UniProtKB/TrEMBL annotation:
Residues 191-400 form the DUF4010 domain. Pfam families: DUF4010, MgtC. The keyword Membrane applies. This is Uncharacterized membrane protein (DUF4010 family). The keyword 4Fe-4S does not apply. Coiled coil: none annotated. It comes from Halomonas ventosae. Keywords: Membrane, Transmembrane, Transmembrane helix. It comes from the Bacteria. Residues 18-142 form the MgtC/SapB/SrpB/YhiD N-terminal domain. The chain crosses the membrane at residues 15-34, 46-65, 71-90, 102-135, 186-206, 212-233, 245-266, 272-295, 316-333, 345-365, 377-398, 404-425.
Length: 426
């Protein structure tokens, strides 16, 4: 029975693929027809029927290219394109509508029909669905473009530059003293930290201040918890009635650093996770729980300006400086490891943690693959995180009100002590 079914499917494969080509055309045609549903009959250039037939025609053209001549598909495609251009030209003259999106969608429908028959059904279906979604979300896409600012577009293009253009060009091999410098891996780390900062920036940008201090603190922690700490600390001097809520926002932002640490370790060296999970989770929870307590006991309606970082994290100069910092840390780590052993790594982690945790986390995770033990890397990362949060609590005490400094410093110290104790014990 199975053999009969298999033979039937094989014999009718072309018919099945042509049916799929017709359905994919109908899918795009339904979206186009719905958009033009209020137009009178004859005013629509291409609706459900036209797109369905064009999808079927694309599939037949692909079959003709295989069975008759390689020129069949391009000739039919050019014919369809020519007829479509004549129709759209007449529409432009009558309605003064210069959009060619519908024309492109019709030509894509023809191509999807050919792909479904001659190449791959899944690829054709995916392309048709994505096309229908894009066509259906014209207003939303244009709305996003209207909200997009020039420096944000510039940041997105720079992210593509350092990812798509620069990363593949770098050599993937060890260089320098002890061959500790791998240009490809260092730049890949730059891409990783830049991507997370980019996501964090737009989380704050799109979420908006109206979501409140906690929402802002949580997502600002993805991009710049230090910037948020400074912003909220200064605000506490002028808004004493919301000091506790501001402290909750700072604790949330600083606590968000710990999921980032786990993410970096999971991507670069997953073997670190068993030893890193407990101390990092405890350190994060000792910040999140006080933040939740402060929110529950001092909750009130409040709106603040979103603490979007002043400097865009995707500036090319910033990316290069970050790459240089990674290289320096890896070179210093190799030198200190040889000169002082584990003590040198811990000294490096403590000094680096004052300014940045991401760089030392990425560096130690990378070094733990070959040059240092996982336990040394884990303790070094915890030291860097503890020093960084203590530094930010110092900023809160120095720049904020006394109450805010107390609310922030006590959980920070508890988090530091617990994390260091667990990392040392493990």
């Amino acid at each position: 029975m199975d053999d009969v079914a298999s033979q039937f499917l094989t014999a009718n494969e072309s018919a099945i693929r042509l049916g799929v080509a017709l359905l994919l055309g109908a899918l795009i045609g339904i979206e186009r027809g719905w958009v033009a549903r209020e137009q009178q009959a004859g005013e629509r250039i291409a609706g459900v029927r036209t797109h369905s037939l064009v999808g079927l025609l694309g599939g037949i053209a692909a079959l003709l290219s295989e069975a008759v001549s390689d020129w069949a598909f391009p000739l039919v495609f050019v014919t369809v394109a020519g007829i479509s251009l004549v129709a759209w030209r007449a529409k432009f003259a009558d309605q003064h509508d210069y959009s060619i999106t519908g024309l492109v969608g019709l030509l894509l429908t023809f191509c999807f029909g050919a792909v479904a028959v001659a190449i791959d059904l899944t690829l054709a279906a995916a392309g048709a669905v994505v096309t229908a979604v894009i066509l259906d979300n014209k207003r939303e896409i244009h709305g996003l473009l209207n909200k997009l600012q020039a420096h944000e577009l510039d940041a997105g293009l720079k992210l593509l530059l350092i990812t798509v253009v620069m990363l593949p060009l770098l050599p993937d091999r060890g260089m320098g003293p002890g061959e500790v410098l791998n240009p490809y891996e260092i730049w890949w780390m730059v891409v990783l930290i830049a991507s997370i900062s980019f996501v964090g920036y737009f989380a704050v940008r799109l979420g908006g201040a109206e979501k409140g201090i906690l929402f802002t603190g949580l997502f600002a922690g993805l991009s710049s918890s230090t910037a948020l700490t400074l912003h909220f600390a200064r605000m506490s001097r002028h808004s004493r009635e919301v000091e506790a809520m501001l402290a909750a926002g700072i604790l949330l932002a600083c606590g968000t650093m710990f999921p980032r640490i786990l993410l970096y370790a999971a991507v670069i060296n997953p073997s670190l996770l068993p030893a890193l999970l407990l101390p990092v989770t405890v350190m994060g929870m000792l910040l999140y729980l006080p933040a939740l307590y402060l929110w529950r006991h001092h909750r009130q309606a409040l709106r603040v300006d979103s603490p979007t970082p002043i400097q865009n994290p995707l500036e090319l100069r910033t990316a290069l400086l970050f790459g240089g910092l990674l290289a320096v840390i890896m070179l210093l780590g190799e030198w200190l490891r040889g000169a002082l052993g584990e003590a040198g790594i811990y000294l490096l982690a403590a000094s680096s943690g004052v300014a940045d945790v991401d760089a030392i986390t990425l560096s130690l995770s990378r070094m733990s693959l070959e040059r240092i033990s996982p336990s040394t890397a884990v303790l070094g990362i915890v030291i860097a995180a503890a020093v960084n949060n203590v530094f930010k609590s110092g900023l809160a005490i120095a720049l904020g009100s006394r109450s805010l400094g107390t609310h922030v410093a006590l959980p920070m110290v508890a988090s530091m002590v617990a994390g260091l104790a667990l990392a040392w014990w493990m």
